[in-house]
């Protein structure tokens, strides 16, 4: 029991400190409404769990249906490393069917259970304490007739009288159970109560030191992981859990959280698991796909925000030293890197880094101007995508030497008419405002520009498209002007299509002016 071994990270660990990871995604996980998996999907999940280093896979409840029987049997046939376990009530037919299903496994386990609490005895089973005890002995004995690896569970253990629970556990051990599972079936226990329960059983039940105690905590009060870990700190050496916390009602303890808490806080818990944690993200995605249950964005370890940072102070810290705001590396759970999400809380450090990543180098004023425009965009838009930043910076670069700049624009549109645009332009450092009426808001805007900067150019093309998705997407407008056989194309982007239109028009105009070096700007201005 006390032989030394090594963790997957190569650190020596004693076998007695190893926590057996018992995955019940395919049994308790599948019991949650809507999470039914097909035969093939179950095989796919089991294969990944096996590869990931899960010690025991509870593959199903073979008596439940022919389909369950067949999937447990096939998983048992295919499993390379994991122990394959099936669930069975305290009934001979359940146990024999389960034994048949797990038979092909290199290592198989029968998991038999019975309700022990007063509520379960009286209402679910309609039997007294003596009969429960008899059934514990009979079921475990029958299971041992099939295999040496027998787990016994006291359903609703946390609401069972302590003395009676001790007697049940003792009966199970005497009959040959090698693992005794203490479920918090309805997620009722607090974390100190649960730890104390495991400690009490270890201290009081004869033979308790010869078997493995296991936890099986439900998440009705959001305490499943905390309670399981409390059980481990008290001496339990198996944790039953499910990928993404899938399970009856509010679910089971989430496998990824248990495993990463044990790994990250090995200093506090002094235990370890044999799980290849770099496969956790894959496992989460697979289970989410086959069950069609989305993973909550802010879910610990595998939520899409678990390694994402949006606020400037955090992004700055991450860029300087990831440890400032991350207690695990993204690589340790199978992600390539953390993500810096650009948004209204981002600061200059992150913005500069994002520009670098997109291949831009802006210095001095250009950077500051782009940053100010980025902040304004982030205020107006829910998601700022890379394409938004590219559009914004391209415009910034293109307009750096422009003589005409759009300062402000107000447009009145709608069915009432007339459509009006009031525009303020900066032309060679002088700001001027003009109001024009037009045939629609775009026409009014362009008329106002034409009035402030008189020119002969003809509008040859006006085209609007969206840079990204959603109703708050940036509009990208392309304007083509033609004058004296010359063509100039301008682009403008903004969440406001009219502002994007004005920018695009002015950009095309700037290009025309730049190409016509003979032309003096003063001659183009309205008097
Ligand atoms: C806490 C848990 O997660 S326990 C596991 C829960 N999972 C499931 O129930 C999923 C699979 N279940 C099924 O397919 C069905 O319920 C079956 C096949 C097991 C049983 O179906 P049925 O025979 O039609 O019984 P039904 O489900 O209606 O009722 C359960 C019966 O099992 C009995 N029972 C419940 N738990 C146990 C147990 N651990 N040991 C012995 N009998 C039990 C109940 O008292 C009830 O018996 P009764 O018919 O004499 O009143
Ligand atoms: C069968 C047992 C382990 C169970 O699922 C529970 O009590 O929640």
UniProtKB/TrEMBL annotation:
GO annotation terms (biological process): L-leucine biosynthetic process
Molecular function via GO: 2-isopropylmalate synthase activity; acetyl-CoA C-acetyltransferase activity; manganese ion binding
Enzyme Commission number(s) of this protein: 2.3.3.13
Pathway in which this enzyme or protein is active: Amino-acid biosynthesis; L-leucine biosynthesis; L-leucine from 3-methyl-2-oxobutanoate: step 1/4
GO cellular component: cytosol
Membrane spanning stretches: none
Enzyme class: transferase
Keyword tags: Amino-acid biosynthesis, Branched-chain amino acid biosynthesis, Cytoplasm, Leucine biosynthesis, Manganese, Metal-binding, Transferase
Cofactor entry: Mn(2+)
Keyword Amino-acid biosynthesis listed: yes
Residue positions binding Mn(2+): 28, 216, 218, 252
Catalytic activity: 3-methyl-2-oxobutanoate + acetyl-CoA + H2O = (2S)-2-isopropylmalate + CoA + H(+)
PROSITE patterns documented for this protein: AIPM_HOMOCIT_SYNTH_1 (PS00815), AIPM_HOMOCIT_SYNTH_2 (PS00816), PYR_CT (PS50991)
Pfam families in UniProt: HCS_D2, HMGL-like, LeuA_dimer
Task performed by this protein: Catalyzes the condensation of the acetyl group of acetyl-CoA with 3-methyl-2-oxobutanoate (2-ketoisovalerate) to form 3-carboxy-3-hydroxy-4-methylpentanoate (2-isopropylmalate).
Subunit structure: Homodimer.
NCBIfam families noted in UniProt: leuA_bact, PRK00915.1-3, PRK00915.1-4
Protein name, as recorded: 2-isopropylmalate synthase
Organism: Methyloceanibacter marginalis
């Amino acid at each position: 029991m006390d032989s030394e071994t090594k963790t997957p990270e190569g650190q020596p660990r004693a076998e007695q400190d190893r926590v057996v990871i018992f995955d019940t995604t395919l049994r308790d996980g599948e019991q949650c409404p809507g999470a039914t998996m097909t035969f093939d999907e179950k095989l796919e999940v089991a294969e990944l769990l096996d590869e990931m280093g899960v010690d025991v896979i509870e593959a199903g409840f073979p008596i439940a249906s022919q389909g369950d029987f067949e999937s447990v049997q096939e998983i048992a046939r295919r499993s390379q490393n994991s122990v394959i376990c099936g669930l069975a009530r305290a009934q001979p037919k359940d146990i024999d069917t389960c034994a048949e299903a797990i038979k092909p496994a290199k290592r198989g386990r029968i998991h038999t259970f019975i309700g022990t609490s007063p509520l379960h005895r009286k209402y679910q089973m309609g039997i007294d304490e003596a009969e429960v005890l008899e059934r514990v002995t009979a079921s475990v004995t029958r299971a041992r007739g099939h295999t040496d690896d027998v787990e016994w569970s006291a359903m609703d253990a946390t609401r069972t009288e302590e003395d009676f629970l001790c007697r049940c556990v003792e009966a199970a051990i005497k009959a040959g159970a090698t693992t005794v599972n203490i479920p918090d079936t309805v997620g009722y226990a607090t974390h100190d109560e649960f730890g104390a329960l495991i400690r009490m059983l270890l201290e009081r039940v004869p033979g308790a030191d010869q078997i493995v105690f296991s936890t099986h905590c439900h998440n009705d009060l959001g305490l499943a992981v905390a309670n399981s870990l409390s059980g481990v700190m008290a001496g339990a050496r198996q944790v039953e859990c499910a990928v993404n916390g899938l399970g009856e009602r509010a679910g089971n303890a989430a496998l990824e959280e248990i495993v990463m808490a044990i790994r990250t806080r090995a200093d506090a818990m002094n235990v370890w698991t044999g799980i290849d944690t770099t496969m956790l993200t894959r496992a989460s995605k697979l289970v989410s796909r086959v069950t069609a249950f989305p993973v909550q964005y802010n879910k610990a370890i595998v939520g899409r925000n678990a390694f994402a940072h949006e606020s400037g102070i955090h992004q700055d810290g991450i860029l300087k030293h990831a440890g400032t705001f991350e207690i695990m590396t993204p690589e340790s759970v199978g992600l390539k890197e953390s993500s810096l999400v650009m948004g209204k809380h981002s600061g200059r450090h992150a913005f500069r880094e994002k520009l670098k990543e997109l291949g831009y180098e802006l210095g001095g004023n250009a950077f500051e101007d782009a940053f100010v425009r980025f902040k304004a965009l982030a205020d107006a838009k829910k998601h700022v995508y890379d394409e938004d930043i590219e559009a914004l910076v391209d415009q910034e670069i293109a307009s750096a030497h422009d003589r005409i700049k759009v300062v402000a624009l107000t447009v009145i549109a709608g069915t009432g008419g007339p459509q009006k645009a009031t525009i303020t332009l900066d032309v060679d450092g002088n700001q001027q405002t003009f109001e024009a009426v037009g045939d629609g808001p775009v026409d009014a805007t362009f008329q106002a520009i034409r009035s402030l900067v008189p020119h002969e150019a003809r509008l040859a093309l006006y085209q609007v498209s969206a840079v990204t998705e959603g109703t708050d997407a940036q509009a990208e407008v392309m304007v083509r002007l033609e004058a004296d056989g010359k063509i100039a194309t301008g682009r403008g982007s903004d969440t406001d299509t009219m502002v994007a239109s004005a920018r695009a028009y002015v950009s095309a105009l700037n290009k025309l002016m730049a190409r016509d070096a003979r032309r003096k700007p003063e001659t183009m201005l309205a008097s």
